[in-house]
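Exam revision sheet. Question 4 asks you to relate a sequence to its structure. Input first:
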Amino acid sequence: MATLLNFVRMSGWQFQSADKARFKEPMQLATIMFLSYFFGSVIDYFVNLKELISYYHPNSYYFFLDILTALLISIVVKVRSKQGQVCKFYLLCGLLFNASLFLIIQIEIFLIYEGFKPYEHWWLWYMFSIGINSSDAMMVLVLILQKDFFRLYLLSRKIRECF
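Answer key, structure tokens:
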């Protein structure tokens, strides 16, 4: 959705070239995120189709895909505009937060499967489901609005200036 909206913004005939340059970087980031989630869906489909899911690591490909996407965004995508910097910051924060939640859940599942911990619902399972969905929603919103609506980017810049 964010990719399509950014594409429409960038391809509009009514915009000047300066406006198109401003939307180019968020469009690149939205395309990378779209491809990441698309490949994640395809991998999930084939893993479930062939029943290749393991008890030790049922969703580890999401962890690796989030890490690879964060590395791709941080190394390859160079941003110069303020909108691009804000989008890149929020995407990296969201991807790393999702990856850490996937890693924590993987450790939890491994401990349960090996018998080191009894199976019981606890706050981490609720935090995982709410955290993943809210982080994804935040990444989509920042790609659509291109604003620092939580003021996290501003806070991180102030902290960097102090050090």
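Marking note for examiners. Helices lie at 2-11, 17-49, 60-76, 82-113, 123-145, 152-162.
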